[in-house]
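Input structure tokens:
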């Protein structure tokens, strides 16, 4: 998921950056074995960090790297034009696995990386967490390498817990419900719980509730949004906001609005992506920065099953005629050394070894690092339906969330959504 607070995608204007001269052998478009690797990246702190380290890679490898750096919209526009045309002048692509990954893989835009990931022993593909690997695979084969990850965790106010007589953050969803009610009873001016409420934005955060109740959006092409587990999850999430949420809560909140309520001191509990944590801990952005705590996503009937997803990944254009050198770049950019450097600067990675390294967690609050480690173990590799037309699917499966918040019968809403989502899935298979 693109985080505009970090990436600034909406502000970006396409910037082509020639990091070094394009001379040397094989510099022409599409030349086999070209020493110039053409890399398209999103505006992100990950990209800025990589650019600083790039001269050392060029010196060691003898390759020249041409980077085209684009904002989110421009990136999508370029891919739509060039990939549809079968262009070979893209070698390495930074892409969003859960937004366009299935479309790219289905259309054979992404090269199969099975041989590369198996051959690179020192690079160590087994070091990557299962959830992100699942999200960057297609039909069991790796087509991307995850570079930036996020999970859902519990944000909470330590002072409000103490005021309500609670000694520790809730470990289960039932405990969360009880604690949220207790906080609101202790101070009616403060919400016990806040989270995203918008039909589409809420889907990703609702997903962890769905999985923890034992459900999923679909199974083998069959819609599952009206399973008993899904109905209970919809009722729980919507009911938690309706009963313990802010007064007169709107049903169009995404993360900026929900985060603002939390950071203004108006809510005790908030489930959200860990990648946004600095919004809550930075005194310049948060009135409650010194009282914020973090905990693993609370367990439901099926356990604690938050999403653990890659928001961005690197892949190789299947039409590229320079795949060998494209992989050399990816192997370096996603290797242990470079990944550790990225994470030390605040970019959460998909490598288990980096999270296990004290250097890799030194810049994170201790309780957040522990919550992330717990989330990574049982995390699910998707936070939305795994389809080609993601935006349309989110609108369908998100409707029962809104209905539950507004007091409508979530079971009936889930039945209606199930019919619509099944038709959607059937249409995608045609």
């Amino acid at each position: 998921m693109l985080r505009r607070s970090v990436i600034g995608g909406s502000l970006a204007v396409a910037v082509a950056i020639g990091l070094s001269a394009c001379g040397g052998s094989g510099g022409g478009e599409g030349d086999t074995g070209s020493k110039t690797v053409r890399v398209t990246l999103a505006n992100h702190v990950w990209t800025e960090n990589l650019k600083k380290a790039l001269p050392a890679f060029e010196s060691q490898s003898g390759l020249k790297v041409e980077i085209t750096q684009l904002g989110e919209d421009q990136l999508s526009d370029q891919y739509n034009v060039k990939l549809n045309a079968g262009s070979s002048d893209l070698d390495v692509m930074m892409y969003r696995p859960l937004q366009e990954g299935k479309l790219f893989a289905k259309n054979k835009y992404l090269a199969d990386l099975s041989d590369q990931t198996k051959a690179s022993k020192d690079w160590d593909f087994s070091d990557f967490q299962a959830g992100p690997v699942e999200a960057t695979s297609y039909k069991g084969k790796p087509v991307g390498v995850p570079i930036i990850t996020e999970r859902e965790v519990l944000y909470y106010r330590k002072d409000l817990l103490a005021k309500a007589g609670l000694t520790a953050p809730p470990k289960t969803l039932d405990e969360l419900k009880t604690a949220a009610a207790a906080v609101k009873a202790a101070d009616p001016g403060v919400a016990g719980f806040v989270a995203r409420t918008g039909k589409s934005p809420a889907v990703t955060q609702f997903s962890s509730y769905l999985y923890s109740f034992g459900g999923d959006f679909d199974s083998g092409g069959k819609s599952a949004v009206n399973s008993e587990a899904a109905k209970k999850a919809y009722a729980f999430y919507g009911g938690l906001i309706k009963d313990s949420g802010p007064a007169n809560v709107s049903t169009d909140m995404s993360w900026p609005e929900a985060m603002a309520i939390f950071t203004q001191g108006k809510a005790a509990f908030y489930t959200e992506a860990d990648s946004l944590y600095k919004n809550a801990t930075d005194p310049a952005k948060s009135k409650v920065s010194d009282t914020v705590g973090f905990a693993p996503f609370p367990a439901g009937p099926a356990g604690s099953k938050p999403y653990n997803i890659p928001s961005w990944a690197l892949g190789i254009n299947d039409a590229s005629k320079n795949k060998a050198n494209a992989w050399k770049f990816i192997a370096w950019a996603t290797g242990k050394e470079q990944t550790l450097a990225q994470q030390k600067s605040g970019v959460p990675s998909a490598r288990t070894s980096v999270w296990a390294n004290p250097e890799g967690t030194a810049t994170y609050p201790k309780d957040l690092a522990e919550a992330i480690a717990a989330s990574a173990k049982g995390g699910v590799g998707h936070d939305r339906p795994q389809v080609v037309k993601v935006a349309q699917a989110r609108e369908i499966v998100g409707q029962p969330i809104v209905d539950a918040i507004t007091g409508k019968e979530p079971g009936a809403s889930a039945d209606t959504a199930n019919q619509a989502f099944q038709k959607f899935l059937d249409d995608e298979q045609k």
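The two ends are 28 Å apart (CA to CA). The chain has two domains: 4-149+310-373, 151-307+382-429.
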